[in-house]
Amino acid sequence: MSFRSVAIGVLAGATLAFPSSGMAGELLAGFQKALSVDPTYQSAKAELEVNRISAERASRAYWPEFGVKAGERTEIQGFQTVFQVAQPLVDADRYATTKGAEPMDVRATATMRTREADLLQRYVSAVADLVRARESLIQNESKTAALAKQVDAAKSGLGLGTGTIMDIYDAEVRLALSRAEAFSLRAALEAAERQYRSQTGEMPGTQGFNLARQQRSIPLRSLEALFDQAEKLNPAVIAALQSERLADLDVTRKYGAFLPRINAIARQTRVQDGQSSQYFGFAFELPLQSGSFLDVSGAKAALVKATEDVRAARVKTRLEIELLYALVVNGRMELPIRLEAMQAAQSSVKANTESFQRGVRSQIDVLNSIQTQFQTQVDYVGSMLSVAQNFVALQAFVDSPSTEVLGQLEAFLF
Fold first, then answer.
1. Does any domain span residue 399?
2. Which of 17, 22, 48, 97 is 20 to 30 Å from the Cα of 144, by its Cα?
3. What is the residue-averaged pLDDT of the chain?
């Protein structure tokens, strides 16, 4: 069934019919496509590969170095070739670089988790926009049909002498506004479909992503449990901690400028006339520079900044979790009230229509009740989607698995 062919109930006692989704796992399937299509995420995967290569390169800082030199030398007649293998033994720079390989890799992984969480939120936002646009158009079509029947009823009432020309005008004004609104709603739907396609690589199906019209809940752990998990798994906090470790190692690196560098050397020299010589020993180097003192001060300042960044990341994470947790909790409490409002609005249409027929209520009361009925539907959709988006944002701060989050979200929404 097309979302536009939804059954329409209008006027007194009529019940709006909404399509039910039988497409379990559609939300997860769309996200899996986004993982392989979304250009921003593809860039993040390339960034991860670059960062991991950098970490691997850093882990090899103490590997031996092999060099070959060849050419004419003025002090020795003839063409000579020099083969040399140098094994670093003492080198503060290489030590800090090697120790930095692990935090570099951990930070790269944490950054990638942040990129995935960002994609998940953008994807859920695209789905929410799609659902909102579809539902708004459905409500508009239902409202338009209801108002059109009210226009017909008003014309019949005028012919029978039970109505006035004002009843017709009032109904026609509401009908015209509803029809005009449909154009902007269709444009919003087309934009939402294009946004969805840009992330998943294909247009959304005409069936599915249909919100449930019944009491639903979404699992939510305690606030303290979320704080504990965020402290251990939050990607931003982890990345900040690794940056702090790297900054601390950089201080070691800068102090290393005042320490000697010692390499074990194995060298063989061959001359064109067949002569050769070999050397096994050590190379000692102490490259002192005046700027090294400033480098140490700068590295210490960078370490202080990195430490404060860790604290800022933890504070921000805690505040965001508290805010999003409150929004989800309050949203869950709001939804049953929204459902009650929908049922009350439907009963109001029926009561106002019957009262109008008995002369107790006016035509404008009936029109207002119809407007309210459809507005409660729109408000319910907005509340459901807000809870969903806040829930996804909350789970991103505690680094919950995307598949788990989407499974909970699908059970809640559809």
1. yes
2. 22
3. 88
Number of Cβ within a 10 Å radius of residue 108: 21
User: How far from 118 is each of 31, 57, 60, 195, CA to CA, in Å?
Assistant: 12, 28, 33, 15
Are 272 and 79 a contacting pair, CB within 8 Å?
yes
Would you say residue 117 has pLDDT above 80? yes
Between CA 6 and CA 19 the distance in angstroms is 7
For 361, the token pair is 């209520």
Helix orientation angle between 39-59 and 101-160, rounded to the nearest 10 degrees:
170
Residue 155 lies in a domain: yes
Query: Would you say residue 2 has pLDDT above 50?
Result: no
Q: 161 pLDDT band (50/70/90 cuts)?
A: confident
201 pLDDT exceeds 70?
yes
Residues 6+ apart with CB under 8 A from 252: 92, 95, 96
pLDDT tens readout for residues 10-35 = 233 333 333 333 334 889 999 999 99
Task: Say if 392 falls within a structural domain.
Answer: yes
Residue 342: give the domain boundaries: 29-65+107-260+295-413
Structural domains of the chain, count? 1
Cα(208)–Cα(223) distance, integer angstroms: 33
Q: Is the dihedral of CA 292, 293, 295, 300 positive or negative?
A: positive
Question: Domain containing 134 — which CATH number?
Answer: 1.20.1600.10
pLDDT digits (tens, 9 = 90+) for 331-380: 999 999 999 999 999 999 999 988 888 878 888 999 999 999 999 999 99
Q: Determine the Cα–Cα distance for residues 97 and 142; give it in Å rounded to an integer.
A: 66
Dist CA 123 CA 198 (whole Å): 10
Q: How many CB atoms lie within 10 A of CB 350?
A: 16
> What is the rounded CA–CA span in Å between residue 180 and residue 144?
10
In a domain, 160, yes or no: yes
